[in-house]
Fold:
Amino acid sequence: MSQEILENNVASEPTPGEKHFPVFAVTDDIIALADDRISHYPESKLSAVLPLIHIVQHKHGFVSKEAITWIAEKLEIEPMKVVSVVTFYPGFRQSAPGKFHYRVCRTLSCAMAGSYELMDQICEITGIDRSKLSHHHPIVVSPCGVYSVEFAECLASCGTGPVCLVNDDFHENIKPENAQDLINQYKA
Amino acid sequence: MSDIKYLPGKEPHEREHRLIFKNIDREGWDPSIDCYMRDGGYDQLKKAINMEPADITGEVKKSGLRGRGGAGFPTGVKWGFIPPGNTKPVYLICNCDESEPGTFKDRYIVHQDPHQLIEGMVISAFAVGAHTAFIYMREEFPEAAIIMEKAIEDARAKGFVGKNILGSDFDLEIWVHRGAAAYICGEETGLIESLEGKRPYPRIKPPYFPAALGIYMAPTIVNNVESLCHVKHILEMGGEEYAKLGVDRNTGTRILCVSGDVKNPGYFEIQVGKMTMRELLYDVCGGPKEGKEFKAVIPGGSSSKILRCDETFKIGRGEDAKDLDFWDIQLDFDTLAACGSMAGSGGVIVLDDSRKMSWVLNNINHFYAHESCGQCTPCREGSTWMKKISDRIVEGKATPEDITTLEEVAYQIDGKTVCAFGEASSWPVEAIISKFRDELTADTDEKNERLSKEQLQREMFLGK
Ligand SMILES: Cc1cc2nc3c(=O)[nH]c(=O)nc-3n(C[C@H](O)[C@H](O)[C@H](O)COP(=O)(O)O)c2cc1C
Ligand code: SF4
Ligand code: FES
Structure:
């Protein structure tokens, strides 16, 4: 029963970014990382859901059905509990982003400083069709799979906008005309 | 403090009074424990561990410290809400979700001065009797999560965290817990649900006041990063001495984050209430950009009600009532509340005369429509309606009636939801309409097509 619900609710669509990430597999390093996180919550293993999803997503780019099943087994919970978390949080993905994922802040102060224009520039340089960005498809991957973009909400650096996260690297004061520099720093 | 040097171009403004940000952008400063300890770090913890926990809470009460996360609730009073005779474990949570648009202060503490936060947390945990503490860190601070975890390890190695802290019988574990890019995780009960491994649906208060029924249904104290750092300084100065900073009922220092249309945006730690809008925007932030004039200010994060720069406010009641000009507003909790807005999270967003209010409103509406957790109907549906109506206004497709509809939707959210997000999303709309109605109406046209019921439904439920 629960496997069926899972099949019907997990929608990991293929993207060109996939080839840049290893396919999900239960490895020793992932088990060790997970066990360490679980030990932080002696009162309830369920609390380790977000940390475990982070571990998987960091390595594999997104959270696949296989990963969800593994996390659920590891925490001895129903897979749907993991699905409900993955589908709620904008920070979790069910499809692979590009190798370099650009999150441009679109909130007020950054928008006033030119973040929408920055997004346009990044898309133009990387060949991404920004019209495909929407609430239900917040991430668009470039055809080569190296780049992807997403609008982020306020990244807590409003005084130095426009700001942008590229994977885990933070960049501030990126004027739209400097988009090329920001791309050049990340090559396949 | 005179021997402290700052990085070139990063010197504090002479009107600042730095406690919390003393080490931010300091020359030669690094986030290591050695650097922190060379500067007298963890001395206050050494003092605290020999005090009675109730006396620490007493000092915090005396200090008058009000929470810096948004609501401005007195910290010591909150700590006192843990039910007497409680037998469950007590938890301390540091709210490092920093996601209120316009706010950028906790970021610098966790990146540059992590041990100040740890010291503040250990003292606070000792005061409230917590043996487990979590730092709920927004996902978009990946580097800070690594810095904080390293700092906690280093503090553990020195005996400041872990078992038998400084040889006492007090134990405390601190864990960093990362969120996943959802604004609602900043709301304390949403945060708690998230920490329990669930969707961050806020809980209804009463009965779920965290200090009584928090994480795992046990007493939980949730405080902002900046608030917890203040605890260390309160102990250092003594509550009474600390309360001499700032003004009556609005004590201490706080960090204001200024962004938008000013010459020098940035963070400024000031004595609460000891500075006016004029001083902040002109003296500290250098005035408007070349050829521009100030138009309006959002004083405490995007959720706070906007103030027009040409507004005058009626302050006080009856005989004591007086007029207050926008420029003379004292930047403290009570004055901003009296002006119909709030000091909130300290995020000051400045708009000049080149900004169209319909565009500003639309940007804000997109934020709240995206971030509503969806648990209650007025907020979930209303925030999306508000976004779609303001979309029409900026696209030039709205009729004057749309403004009325927009206003009505806002008032149907406000006060009718599980959590304060309802107010956070509707206040900006209410305030911008009431203060800039003419400007918004000018962006509409009688001749625009009024959407039929079917078209409206299509827009609302099928997307555009
Ligand atoms: C929608 C919403 C978002 C919030 N976001 C934050 C936040 O990002 N950081 C924060 O410290 N408090 C935030 N708060 C306030 C918290 O609920 C809580 O009041 C605060 O963390 C308490 O700490 P303090 O007493 O030290 O201010 C938010 C509240 C609401 C209603
Ligand atoms: S007010 Fe909005 S954010 Fe808060 S619980 Fe209701 S739907 Fe969720
Ligand atoms: S608005 Fe972009 S960081 Fe806050």
